[in-house]
Amino acid sequence: MADVDDREVMTHSERVDYIINKGCEYFGMEKSELISACGTRNNKHRVKRYIALALYTKTETTMGTIGFMLGFGSNLGVSGALKKIKEELSDDFYGENRTKEVYNELLSYLNL
Questions:
Q1: Which residue among 9, 31, 36, 37 sits deepest, i.e. has the most Cβ atoms within 10 Å of its Cβ?
Q2: Residue 61 belongs to domain with CATH number
Q3: Is the pLDDT of residue 5 over 70?
Q4: Domain containing residue 33
Q5: How confident is the model at residue 7 (pLDDT cuts 50, 70, 90)?
């Protein structure tokens, strides 16, 4: 994989691997743990949402590929996860501000 300072010249697959691996590192989770099946109301699924959004917005990866790599059941699972986290990040959402903080910290950690 390209050096961390050379992220601009990473291939698409290197960038995707970088985001998944560093995302798992940030959340203190093994990659195998992340891709295993989980319910929608646990912390693992929340982590999947953050990483899926980073992949979707920072790479040209399709929802189907993201779903396969992160262990979502289908495109519908990825679509729902992205919709949920985008709602939480929007200014119109009156929920928890912690989602914005965590996502911004993740992007900062990834240096993207």
A1: 31
A2: 1.10.1750.10
A3: no
A4: 8-110
A5: low
1, part of any domain: no
Q: Is residue 70 part of a domain?
A: yes
3 falls within a domain: no
**Does any domain span residue 38?**
yes
**Digit-coded pLDDT (tens) for 25-83:** 999 999 988 888 666 567 788 899 999 999 999 998 999 999 999 988 778 889 999 99
Domain count, the chain: 1
Q: Residue 56: its pLDDT value, please?
A: 95
The Cα-based distances of 73 to 12, 27, 65, 77 in angstroms read 23, 22, 11, 6
